[in-house]
Specification:
alpha/beta; seven-stranded parallel sheet; Rossmann fold; single chain; six-stranded parallel sheet; binds uridine-diphosphate-N-acetylglucosamine; 2 domains; 47% helix
């Protein structure tokens, strides 16, 4: 039984590492082959994750990047289809909400190959986000929908998924498994003593000058109070350079997962527009200010672990002031038991044995 995992962007490497390990450990006759679309291609956006997280080397490596959405998704679709036709997998496994996710799912469905979608059911309800479009379409054509939370299951119910021929399962969040696993390897101390960790990469923030300047001015102000450390996505760096924006905080090259976990673990607070980092902050006992107007991880906001501040300078500063000194007490465990990858591997195995 052959699985082809289609991935291409940083957050997918983090999730696939954990699921690949579980697939290997399952001792079944499942064989996984990895297809990397090349969407993320820099050493520090891609290779470092494969090396330090022990992800099997890609069996197929495309080079589709630096393109508009249509050209990127279209070229991936064409090239993935050719590989699937030649390889005839029993199932295609996709993660999250990137263009690589959608292309992988669409190529598989047209060839009548079943699809397993990890991180199904998430919604921001902002249909302008490319990620929202990708996840709605991928969910709709998937056969196994692995949801990370009960909220995600509810979202799918509301969209009528109980009348669609597919299986929706709450298996918990594979990122929680990963955080527990890799936290054990973090021994070195923090790079700074007191600091706020921040990232900016969402198109809605980087491609809108007023939003980007709102976030950067807020981080500049916070940096007068406490160091702000920002491992910066190449997309954002290019735009900051082009606009010649003034930055007073510390910019780092994008960091690998282990360095990221280290940075989160010792941070005083996290300020981000990343989906993954919002939860990783919680896993490691940190509050988060989210520089978006909505989030898929609504339970974090509902239970006051996260404040949605948007991109408004004053609102970000106000949220920072609320959370920076607040003692952190974990009162909920909404992301499963840390055994999601195992549940996913078991389910794929039983699905394919039918
Ligand atoms: C993509 C995903 C997003 C995910 C994010 C994680 C889509 C639509 N978006 O956004 O869901 O949260 O990955 O990072 O799939 N670039 C480099 N080096 C790299 C990768 C990218 O320089 O290794 C630059 C390229 O110039 C590219 C730009 O960053 O044009 C944006 O990359 P792209 O793949 O379009 O989207 P992300 O912002 O990374």
């Amino acid at each position: 039984m052959k699985i082809i995992t289609v991935l291409g962007a940083r957050p997918q490497f983090v999730k696939a590492a954990t699921v690949s390990r579980a697939l290997k450990a399952s001792n079944s006759n499942l064989e996984e082959k990895i297809l990397h679309t090349g969407q993320h291609y820099d050493v520090n956006m891609s290779d470092v994750f494969f090396e330090e997280m022990g992800i099997p080397k890609p069996d197929f490596r495309l080079d589709v990047n630096n393109k508009g959405h249509g050209a990127m998704t279209g070229q991936m679709l064409k090239e993935i289809e050719e590989i699937l036709i030649a390889e005839k997998p029993s199932i295609v496994l996709v993660y999250g909400d990137t263009n690589s996710t959608l292309a992988g799912a669409l190529a598989a469905k047209k060839l009548h190959i079943p699809i397993a979608h990890v991180e199904a059911g998430l919604r921001s309800f902002n249909i302008k986000m490319p990620e929202e479009i990708n996840r709605i379409l991928t969910d709709r054509i998937s056969d196994l929908l692995f949801c990370p939370t009960e909220n995600a299951v509810e979202n799918l119910k509301k969209e009528g998924f109980d009348t669609i021929d597919c299986e929706v399962l709450n298996v918990g969040d594979v990122m929680y498994d990963g955080a527990l696993h890799y936290a054990k390897s973090i021994k070195e101390r923090a790079i700074e003593n007191d600091y706020v960790l921040s990232t900016i990469h969402r198109a809605e923030n980087t491609d809108d000058v007023s939003r980007l300047t709102g976030i950067i001015s807020a981080l500049n102000k916070i940096n007068e109070d406490i160091s702000v450390v920002v491992p910066l996505h190449p997309r954002t760096r290019k735009i900051i350079d082009n606009l010649d924006l003034q930055v007073n905080f510390k910019i780092l090259e994008p960091v690998g997962y282990l360095k990221m976990v280290n940075l989160i673990k010792y941070a005083n607070l996290v300020i981000t527009d990343s989906g993954g980092l919002q939860k990783e902050a919680f896993f490691f006992g940190k509050y988060c200010v989210t520089t978006r107007d909505e989030t898929e991880w609504v339970e974090m906001v509902e239970y006051n672990f996260n404040i949605l501040a948007g991109a408004d300078e004053d609102k970000i500063l106000e949220s920072y002031n609320i959370l920076i000194k607040k003692p952190f007490v974990k009162t909920i465990e909404p992301y499963g038991k840390g055994n999601s990858a195992h549940l996913i591997a078991k389910k794929i195995e039983s699905f394919l044995s039918k």
